[in-house]
Amino acid sequence: RVEHPAGGYKKLFETVEELSSPVTAHVTGWIPTWLRGSLLRCGPGLFEVGAEPFYHLFDGQALLHKFDFKEGHVTYHRRFVRTDAYVRAMTEKRIVITEFGTYAYPDPCKNIFSRFFSYFKGVEVTDNALVNVYPVGEDYYACTETNFITKINPDTLETIKQVDLCKYVSVNGATAHPHIENDGTVYNIGNCFGKNFSLAYNIIRIPPLQADKEDPMNKSEVVVQFPCSDRFKPSYVHSFGLTSNYIVFVETPVKINLLKFLSSWSLWGANYMDCFESNETMGVWLHVAEKKKGRLLNVKYRTSAFNLFHHINTYEDNGFLIVDLCTWKGFEFVYNYLYLANLRANWDEVKRQAEKAPQPEARRYVLPLNIDKADTGKNLVTLPYTTATATLRSDETIWLEPEVIFSGPRHAFEFPQINYKKYCGKPYTYTYGLGLNHFVPDRLCKLNVKTKETWVWQEPDSYPSEPIFVSHPDALEEDDGVVLSIVISPGTGPKPAYLLILNAKDMSEVARAEVEVNIPVTFHGLFKRA
Predict the structure, then answer these.
(1) Which of 124-133, 189-198, 387-396 has the lowest mean pLDDT?
(2) Where does Fe cation bind (predicted)?
(3) What three-state secondary structure class fits 157?
(4) Binding site members
(5) Is the dihedral angle over the CA atoms 493, 499, 501, 504 positive or is it negative?
(6) What is the dihedral angle through the alpha carbons of 316, 320, 321, 325, rounded to the nearest 10 degrees?
(7) What pLDDT was estimated at residue 184?
(8) Is-contact 270 303, C-beta < 8 A?
C-alpha cells in the first residue's frame, strides 16, 4: 500500500492562473503519429475569492483545460469559464452565487431594506460548469449538474454563452454524464416535477444535427419518466445506463430534501449540501425502461444500500441486463467526505477520515427482463459467466446480489472509462479507472471485467486524473489504443505536471508531455479527434 506523508496531493486543490495563450509541453518518449486532436477537461481552478474561501471540492470556479496533439508535438492551454458565478465574483470581488458547499452571503453594500427584498427572488442557481464537457451537434458544452450549461469554443476555450435547459425541456437539472450515441444523439436524465405534485426523473433526448443545421437543443424532448420512490424527495442522480434497447436508472438512498431546497436559503445561510439526507431503510431501487418505446418495465428490482456516481457500462445478454457500477457501500453520502478541509489534511488525518466513509466496490448486477411468477423463490440468473443473482420474492420484487469485480479496502476503482465509441451498451472486457487511495488519486488501473485481472500505473508522489481511452484508428481489438491522464508530481523539480500517455494494452508508459505550471484537479473530459 502506497503512503503519501509528504502531502503532495494538496497541490490538486490550489488556485492557479489561466493562460493568455497555449504553452509548449516538453515531450519525453514518442507521441504516436496517429494521435491528433485535443484532450479537453474540466475542474475547479479558483478555490477562494479574495479572503472568502470555497469549502467543497465541487465549489471552486470552473477551469477548462486543453492538451493539443499535432505531429508529435503537445501544447497546453487553460481558461476560466466565464460563467455568471465567475464573472460576478470577479466584478464584486466576493463570492456572489452560492455553490455546492459554500453559501454566498448577501451583498454587504446593500442596506437591510433591499436585502430583505432580495430574499424573495428565490435562490440563484449556480452555473459553475466544473464537472464535464460534451458535444451537442457541432457545439461543445461545459457543465455542472444544474439547469445551466455553458457553450464553449473547444479551440480557443472561450466562453460563448450560458444555456438554460429549462427553456428547452421539462427538467430541473441534468447530469454531467449524458450518453452520446455514434450518430450524435444525446440522452440525459434529470429531476422534474411529475404528475400530481410528485417528483420524478425525466430522460431527455437531443437529436443529432440535421441537414437544416438548426440547433438540436430546440428539438429536445422527454422520452420517458421514471417514478420517484418518495414523492417529495428525489434521489441524487449522477449518471445512468444505456443500451441499444434499454435505459437503466439506479435510484439510491441519497435524497434531496426539496422543502429545505425551496425554503428561502438566504434566511438561514444554506447551500446545496445542506439539502441532502439519507433514507436509511429503502436500500437501492433499480428501474428499467424500453428506450425506443419510452415504456417503463413494471419490474421492481431491489438491493441493499449504496451510493452511486459512475456507471461503468451496461449491456444486454440473452434476456438479461448486465449493469456494471462503481459503488460506495451504505447510505451515508460520500460527498460529506469531500470538503476541501478533509482533502487538504495531512496524510494521517486523510486516512482517519476515509476509514469512517462508505467503502468503494466495483460491482456487476444482473437484471432479468423476463419474469415468470412460477419462479418465486428462485435465482433467475442463468448466465454461466457471473455469480450475480436475482431472486424473485413473494412480494414480486426481485432481490439482486452483485458479483464483485473490484474491491480493496479504501482503494476505489473510480472515474471509469471504456472504449466508449465501440463498446458502450455492448458486451465488453476492459475498463480503465482512477485509483483512489483514501480519496487521494494515486494510480491508474485497467480492469478486465471478465477475469478481474488488473494492470496498474503508479509512481511515488504522483497524482493522476481520470484516464481517457483513445482508440487506435485501425484498432482490431478493444484495447488497441492509448490512455491519457493529467498527472501532477509536485515534489520533483521544475516541471510540476504532465500529460501521461500509456499503452492501453499493458498500462506501460509511451510518452509524457511536461509543463512548467501546476494543474489542479480535473473531473471529467473527452478526446476530440482532429
Answers:
(1) 189-198
(2) 177, 238, 310, 524
(3) coil
(4) 177, 238, 310, 524
(5) positive
(6) -120
(7) 98
(8) no
* Residue 217 pLDDT greater than 80, yes or no: yes
Task: Categorise residue 520: left if φ over 0, alpha if ψ from -120 to 50, beta otherwise.
Answer: beta
- What is the pLDDT at residue 121? 60
Q: Are 346 and 295 in contact (CB under 8 A)?
A: no
> Which element (helix H / strand E) includes 443?
strand 440-448
User: Grid coordinates in use for 234?
Assistant: 428525489
- Residue 15 in 3-state DSSP? coil
DSSP, residue by residue, 322-346: EEEEEEEESSS-GGGG-BHHHHTS-
Report the side by side order of strands in the sheet with 186-193.
179-180, 186-193, 199-206, 221-227
331 residue type, one letter: F
Give the Cα separation of 413 and 446 in Å (integer).
9
* Sheet containing strand 454-457, strands side by side: 411-417, 430-437, 440-448, 454-457
pLDDT above 80: residue 110: no
The model carries a pTM of 0.97
**What's the residue count for the chain?**
530
State how beta strands 139-143 and 186-193 pair: unpaired
> To which H or E segment does residue 84 belong?
helix 84-92
Q: How far is CA 338 from CA 22, 48, 104, 167, in A?
A: 31, 16, 19, 32
In angstroms, the CA 395 to CA 184 distance is 41
Helices (H) and strands (E) counted in the chain, each on its own, are 7, 37
Query: At which residue does the C-alpha cell 431472486 appear?
Result: 391
CA 352/CA 493 separation, integer angstroms:
30
The answer to whether 165 and 144 have CB atoms below 8 angstroms apart is no
Give the Cβ contact number of residue 103 at 10 Å: 17
Which residues fall in the annotated binding site for Fe cation? Answer: 177, 238, 310, 524
Cell numbers 432479468: residue = 368
141-190 pLDDT, tens digit each: 999 999 999 999 999 999 999 999 999 999 999 999 999 999 999 999 99
Q: Cα–Cα distance between 368 and 322 in angstroms, integer?
A: 9
Residue closest to 134 by CA, chosen among 155, 114, 146, 149:
149
323 class by beta-carbon count within 10 Å (0-12 exposed, 13-18 middle, 19+ buried) = buried
3-class state of residue 313 by DSSP: strand
Distance of alpha carbon 381 from alpha carbon 377, whole angstroms = 12
Separation CA 468–CA 246 (nearest Å): 25
pLDDT band at 116 (very low <50, low <70, confident <90, very high): low
Q: Quick one: pLDDT at residue 489? A: 96
Place of cell 413473494: 394
* Tens of pLDDT, residues 475-522: 999 999 999 999 999 986 778 999 999 999 999 999 999 999 999 999
Q: Minimal CA–CA distance to 134: which of 527, 529, 530, 424?
A: 527
Give residue 117's pLDDT band: very low, low, confident or very high (50, 70, 90).
low
Instruction: Report the pLDDT value the prediction gives residue 122, as an integer from 0 to 100.
Output: 65
